[in-house]
Amino acid sequence: MKAIIYEGAEQITVREIPKPQPSEGWALVKVSHAGICGTDLNIYAGTHPRAKAPLVMGHEFSGELESDNVPGVPRGSRVTVYPLLSCGHCEPCRSGNAHVCNDLKLLGIDCDGGFAEYVQVPVESVIPLADNVSNKMGALVEPVAVCVHALRERGFQPGDNALVFGCGAIGLSTALALRVFGASFVLIMENDEYRANLARSMGFEVISSTGLDMDAYCKSRTGGNGFDWVMDCAGVQSVADALLDAVKVHGHIVVIASYKKPASMPFIKGMFKEITIEFVRVYRLKDFAIAAKIVANDPNFEKIITHVLPVSEAQKGFDLMTTRGSGAIKVMYSFD
Ligand SMILES: [Zn+2]
Ligand SMILES: [Zn+2]
Questions:
Q1: How confident is the model at residue 270, as a pLDDT?
Q2: Which ligand is nearest to the CA of 83?
Q3: Which ligand lies nearest the alpha carbon of 90?
Q4: Which ligand is nearest to the CA of 60?
Q5: Where does the pLDDT of residue 324 fall: very low under 50, low under 70, confident under 90, or very high at 90 and above?
Q6: What is the Å distance from ligand 2's center to 123 Cα?
Q7: Minimum-distance ligand to the CA of 104?
Q8: In 3D, which of 280, 260, 328, 298 has the Cα closest to residue 150?
Q9: Nearest ligand, measured from the Cα of 99
Q10: Does residue 204 contact residue 233 with C-beta atoms inside 8 Å?
Q11: Is residue 135's pLDDT more than 90?
Q12: Which pLDDT value is given to residue 335?
């Protein structure tokens, strides 16, 4: 079968490899669409701490089930896949938090994933797609699940307002999820005009943070208090500097972005507001199932997918994602 292979730092090839032969408890999926994630960019850069070449990357994908050993999901069903591999016996796993397993592994990072014509996956990880979710949207469920998890895990309440930093796939998905979850007001901060305009086309108010007095501005937009929820979907120092100015007393700061470098924060401001900073990682199975439903309910989710490329353009996918101003937000490969 054809696969996109990570061969080493900044080196990918498209070549033939043997089709996986699933062992007991695993099922075969014929891949339709697979998205490039920030994590794949880390692997590509050669900086991911666990991924080892040669590797078939890809943990955001959809396809057709080719096995008949998945309870309740007939062979031929269109599916997406929950890509987490938890050990099942560590303390987090045994206390209902398998998504933050002490030894968490993922398809496409720790073993071969979805950037290939076929992938093998644990039977319990197969999630059927509803008829109104296309294969393309099925591959977007994974990043949306990250955002659904952030809101559910941290107790977002309908009617709360929120500020979202960053308009990448995660920022846009978070803003859309906030709307689905009943936010009374969602404001986005993004300095890239192309990305800001895309968010505006989804009906969001977007402003640039350049030169803004963050504290005064956020108070002016929230009746003098600051935001109930401040979602960091950017992961850069300038945003870390602003989070504590944007949030209200006892409000929530949720860091969804994965910071590439250590960041500093003006902790004294956190003390004055008695703030708890919250972090989230991936998703629970339930978040994933919810994301698989909501991607179909709002056509705006589709706008996040800016490029769908054939496998032959594997390199172009990574070039788009690593070039500033390319206009790429979510780039997918189609194996159909
Ligand atoms: Zn991802
Ligand atoms: Zn575990």
A1: 97
A2: 1
A3: 2
A4: 1
A5: confident
A6: 18
A7: 2
A8: 280
A9: 2
A10: no
A11: yes
A12: 97
Residues 76 and 65: beta-carbon distance below 8 Å: yes
Between the CA of 282 and the centroid of ligand 2 the distance, in Å, is 14
Find the 184 Cα to ligand 1 centroid distance in Å.
28
Measured distance CA(233)–CA(319) in Å, rounded? 22
* Spacing, Cα 188 to ligand 2 middle (Å): 36
Distance 271 CA to ligand 1 centre (A): 33
151 alpha carbon to ligand 1 midpoint, in Å? 17
Flag whether pLDDT at 266 surpasses 90.
yes
Nearest of 217, 55, 37, 237 to residue 144 by alpha carbon: 37
81 vs 152, 279, 282, CA distance in Å?
A: 20, 24, 13
Residues 45-52 have a mean pLDDT of 95
Q: Provide the pLDDT for residue 325.
A: 87
Round to whole Å and give the CA distance between 290 and 127. 11
For 198-239, the pLDDT digits (tens) are 999 999 999 999 999 999 999 999 999 999 999 999 999 999
β pairing state of 60-65 and 118-122? unpaired
Ligand nearest to the CA of 87: 2
HSE-up of 238 (CA within 13 Å, CB side)? Answer: 13
What mean pLDDT is reported for the chain?
97
**Cα of 281 from ligand 2 centre, angstroms:** 14
DSSP 3-state assignment of 253? strand
Of the listed ligands, the closest to the CA of 170 is 1
Kindly give the distance from the C-alpha atom of residue 115 to the centroid of ligand 1, in angstroms, as a whole number.
Answer: 13
Rounded-to-integer distance, Cα 110 and Cα 114, Å:
12
Average pLDDT over residues 81-107: 98
Residues in the chain: 336
Which bound ligand lies closest to the C-alpha atom of 282? 1
3-state secondary structure 161-206: EEEEECCCHHHHHHHHHHHHCCCCEEEEECCCHHHHHHHHHCCCEE
Separation between Cα atoms, residue 161 and residue 156, nearest integer Å: 10
Taking the centre of ligand 1 as the mean of its atom positions, its distance from the CA of residue 269, in whole angstroms, is 32
Structural domains of the chain in order of their starting residue, each with its CATH number: 2-144+283-334 (3.90.180.10), 155-279 (3.40.50.720)
